[in-house]
Design goal:
DNA binding, RNA_pol_sigma-70-like, about 75% helix, mainly alpha, single chain, 2 domains, sigma factor activity, DNA-binding, Rna Polymerase Sigma Factor, Chain: A
């Protein structure tokens, strides 16, 4: 008796292959027209870029759930997307603002435990520590691990300060680029970047002096 082979829907495979080569605009038009299945193609195309953004701004254990939230927002907001601009940039702005919303909720709910820093955040803040002459690193390190100090410093910043510092200093974006992602004015980003950097320096110096007095 000949072995039975699984039936393959070649028409479906061809449609999937066509979808993977279609432009973002073409896929978006199909989704808006009611073909929700095409959204999976768009999701697969941009899943990794979104995850990279989230991993830079969120604790690791929050990335997967937040990624789902981002793509739900994207799907719901597609009818309002202006196709004169870049879809990738529009998607990135949703991802960044979702990270911002995460930290706003975190700071409103202080009983929520402080999550670990991402590697990129820790590396950048360690450089800030090492470059500040007013911080006594020896005293600071006697009673606390460096990572605990960094977590505490970030935890004392507002969600707005945290996000703008990460975008401008950690990722190296210009004020205009950060403003576009956050939906703020360029002037607001510049002012907040300056003020938040000063706040962070004061927090780190304060932590160092507190350790000296103990």
């Amino acid at each position: 008796m000949p072995r039975l082979r699984p039936v393959i829907d070649t028409r479906l495979l061809i449609m999937q292959q066509i979808a993977t080569t279609e432009s973002d605009a073409a896929l978006i038009q199909q989704i808006i027209a009611g073909n929700a299945d095409v959204f999976e193609t768009l999701l697969k195309r941009y899943e990794q870029p979104v995850l990279r953004i989230l991993k830079r701004h969120l604790p690791y254990d929050q990335v997967e759930e937040t990624a789902q939230e981002v793509f739900v927002k994207v799907y719901q907001s597609l009818p309002g997307f202006k196709q004169t601009g870049s879809f990738k940039h529009w998607l990135s702005s949703i991802a960044v603002r979702t990270c911002y919303d995460f930290w706003r909720k975190h700071y409103r709910n202080r009983e929520m435990p402080m999550s670990s820093l991402t590697e990129a955040q820790a590396e950048w803040l360690e450089k800030t520590l090492s470059n500040d002459a007013e911080i006594d690193h020896e005293n600071l390190g006697r009673r606390k691990e460096a990572r605990e100090v960094l977590e505490e410093a970030l935890g004392r910043l507002s969600a707005e300060d945290r996000m703008v510092l990460e975008l401008v200093y950690l990722e190296g974006l210009t004020g205009k680029e950060a403003a576009s992602l956050l939906g703020w004015s360029v002037a607001n980003v510049k002012v907040r970047t300056f003020r938040s950097r000063k706040k962070l320096e004061k927090i780190l110096i304060g932590l160092a002096r507190h350790e000296e007095d103990r």
